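1st attempt posting a full record on here, be nice pls
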Amino acid sequence: MNHKLSDFVELRAGHPFRGSVPASVVGNAYALQMRDLSPEAGVAWRGLVRTELDTRKSPDWLQRGDVVFVARGMRNYALCMDEVPLPTVCSQYFFLLRVRSAPLLPTLLPEFLAWQINRAPAQRYLASNAEGSDQLSIRRGVLEDLPLVVPSIERQQRIVALGAAARRERQLHEQLILNGEKQLDALAYELHAAK
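the predicted structure (as tokens):
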């Protein structure tokens, strides 16, 4: 059965900051911006800007299990929030995807949703539907119509675990390369010091 993202997800726009996020030392919230995350490393929580939000109209606070989608720029990817240690909203450059349960549809894991958005078939769909001349962006309707395949919950769990293992392996390889470069630099300094 063919599904699309809007069948499973409540999609919300990021917090409507006007321009850059105003910093506040004693603010009541933190703002997730594009510079604060990457698909490889996740969220750099320590780097978030603290800001002040009007809480009379309840903001869309990030929650564990939410998926944030980078809607602008050259890389449109999704990241599942496995933790949200601070009262945080995402900025206007994101869409917030919150998986909802639907009685007649299969269960969709948020981690699997993020994984599927980041894989080649979805990325091809997004790239072919991106708009803009100066800066590419994904419209809400395009994201809502993103085709999804939702296998059994057990298969989703296996795929998510495989994706996490591949991410850890990539991080270990990158660390090995970095360690090798540091050893070579130390050797070069040693040679220069021995002159």
